[in-house]
Amino acid sequence: MTHTDFHGVFPCLVSPIDERGRVMDAVLTRLVHDLIGAGVHGLTPLGSTGEFAYLNRQQRHRIVAVVVQAARGRVPVVAGVAATTIADAVEQVKAYEALGVDGVLGILEAYFPLTEEGVVAYFTAIANATALPVVLYTNPQFQRSDLTLPAIERLARIENIRYLKDASSDTGRLLSILNAVGDRIRVFSASAHIPACVMLIGGVGWMAGPACVVPRQSVQLYDLCRAGQWEEAMRLQRSLWRMNRVFATYNLAACIKGGLALQGYEVGAPLPPQTPLSEAGRAEIRGVLADLGALEAARAAS
């Protein structure tokens, strides 16, 4: 089954890796099944929450293979493609397409700063390597060479570049993007934004790590936004925002993996040199999840 219309809640999946460096297929498969059962609209392996920068080629390939196999075509799988070179990015695109993904999330890694021409060339090469839909990822907090508005306008002319995930935390910038290319590119927010507000100004959903641990609540928020029930949506948004405040205090992957462990998913620790979640962090996340009704519900789903 091929999915071409991406919308709604796409959890950015963790990458469960054991102490010997092996992907833990069983727990990842279980997480995929439970997230789909909770009503999510798609899955995104190898995003920031998936620690793509800390995985080798074999681990990344296995993560995508397991997610595609577990999803069984029920929801679209949009795999992260991150590289410092065009050749590596193109190789990843072709490998993941062969595994059966429904789209790719283009992520630019850079050691030296790149010109706008270099940035545009990178994403153009990703798009040209496949007929699958491409999601551009812009995150100026972590990307040394980010997508400018003129670069996004140029890339929007490429037929299969159809979506953008924005993690800039700048809603004004996001509104500028929507004004410039809203008829050609649909926008997903990240957890750095308040998703309900992004939906209000024209977004189509969000791709974010917190949806791994609060999937039902995230889907409920999306449904409220789609129904135009903004007052109720903002009440739920305010309660869910507590998750983001925790993630701002501790390491992202450690928080999501720690939250999943509290829900009964033994996904392992974040990959070194990242540090595991502290006891204080575990207690804080436990409290937030309990208040949101996301502890017992997760265990029951499994």
Which helices and strands, and how do they pair?
Blueprint: E1 8-11, H1 25-37, H2 57-71, E2 78-83, H3 86-99, E3 103-108, H4 116-128, E4 134-138, H5 149-155, E5 161-166, H6 171-181, E6 186-189, H7 195-200, E7 205-208, H8 215-226, H9 230-249, H10 252-262, H11 279-291, H12 296-301
Parallel strand pairs: 1-7, 2-3, 3-4, 4-5, 5-6, 6-7
Helix pairs in contact: 1-2, 2-3, 3-4, 4-5, 8-9, 10-11
Which descriptors would you attach to this protein?
302 residues; alpha/beta; TIM Barrel; seven-stranded parallel sheet; 12 helices; globular
Account of the protein in words:
The protein has helices at residues 25-37, 57-71, 86-99, 116-128, 149-155, 171-181, 195-200, 215-226, 230-249, 252-262, 279-291, 296-301; strands spanning 8-11, 78-83, 103-108, 134-138, 161-166, 186-189, 205-208. The protein is an alpha/beta fold and 302 residues long. The chain has a single domain, classed as Aldolase class I (TIM Barrel, Alpha-Beta Barrel), CATH 3.20.20.70. A seven-stranded parallel sheet has the order 1-7-6-5-4-3-2. Helix 1 (25-37) packs across helix 2 (57-71), helix 3 packs parallel to helix 4 (116-128) and helix 8 packs antiparallel against helix 9.
